[in-house]
Amino acid sequence: MNKFNSAYLDFVRLFAALIVFVGHLNYEYLVGSIFGATHLPGLGPDAVMVFFVLSGFIISDVVKRRESALTEYVSARISRLLSIAWPALLITLMCDQLGQAINPDYYQGAWWFNDSHFIPRLGVNLLLLNQLWFFDVGAFSNGPFWSLGYEAFFYAIFVAIGFNVKHRKLLFMLLCLIAGPKILILFPIWLSGYYLYNYVIKTQLSLITSIILFVLSVLLYITYKSYCGEGLMSSYFTDLVFKKQNTFISSLGHSGLFLDYYFLSLLIILNFLATYNIFKRISDDRMPNMLYRLNRVLALGTFAIYAVHYPIIHCIAALSDYYKISHTFQSNMMMFLIPLMVSALVTYYGNQLRKPMVRIIKCIISRD
Fold first, then answer.
1. What's the predicted TM-score (pTM) here?
2. Backbone angles phi, psi at 139, to 5 degrees
């Protein structure tokens, strides 16, 4: 993968994280239409699908280059998730405690917030088991944390697909049985990114074909978002097959709109396929090193931005409401800047935490 392709994927990852972040800022009870972007909240699930496809795509690349050994893969994936997930949970607890201590009413009945059964809830989220089967164990006020439970099992199930381990079929069935239908329904989206990488490195599309595919992916997405309501395809499927709202579909939670997500993932695949073939024609020498490094540094913080922003803005909103400064320029700027600054710190110290975590995980695996 050359610098231009790497930079494009980093940009997409950063842009998707910011879409989720700014989209949540647009919730009326938090800030309300910041920058006039009233429709951004509806783009959050689309951004998560970008993360899933991109994750599979990048895993395919890193497994070929530096994580071909199972020990390297397992230690890298676990440390990657937990080095951000655990600090994110700590920040969530701190923000929730502060916000509730000063303005408890702001948390009662609030979107996503649930602190019942505190110890089991904390334990399940620490282990990223929050989305097994039909469970949806929210991480207190940290609503976006749900997708980490999916990502963890995507990584785990991939072990039985991408590595030559003993009893692969049995391991695959066991992991699928543990994960349950919600995770398995969206697993093909993640897996499509993995197979896309294997396809693009072996295939050469013409420049004209690549440009057409790129334009097509953008136009189809704009058309879909402009003329189709959220979950239209999945709702039509439910009405056609079940004739009414079905309990099973409703119990799928975040996976309930799977047909729409499959369609979106197809557009993402077309976009990545097109851009990969366009950018691989451009020499690395034409990418300014300063721009490339800046893009890499900014993209490193995307996971942290996604994982920590919501409890912070919820806490700031609660404090702003209590002190009667909500929806002012000062409170809006605090909600925008403080999560980004905290994300930078979590990214830095999370990377420092990864090194000892990798050593510990490798030590545990080697003993077994």
1. 0.90
2. -90, 65
> Where in the sequence is the domain holding 347, given as residue range(s)?
3-367
Tokens of 199: 């396809």
DSSP category for residue 139: B
Q: Of 230, 225, 299, 305, which is closest to residue 21 (Cα–Cα)?
A: 305
Within 10 A of 208 (CB to CB), how many other CB atoms are there? 8
* CB 167 within 8 Å of CB 203: no
CB 20 within 8 A of CB 144: yes
Q: Which residues pair with 142 in a beta bridge?
A: 139
DSSP string covering 51-79, please? HHHHHHHHHHHHHHHT--SHHHHHHHHHH
Type of residue found at 238 = T
In this structure, what is the dihedral angle of CA atoms 87, 91, 94, 95, given to the nearest 10 degrees? -170
pLDDT digits (tens, 9 = 90+) for 23-51: 888 776 666 555 454 545 568 889 999 99
Query: What length is written for the chain?
Result: 368
204: left (phi over 0), alpha (psi -120 to 50) or beta: beta
CA distances to 58, 103, 210, 362 from 292, rounded to whole Å, are 18, 44, 23, 32
The tally of domains found in the chain comes to 1
Look at residues 112, 116, 118 and name the one whose alpha carbon lies nearest to residue 309.
112
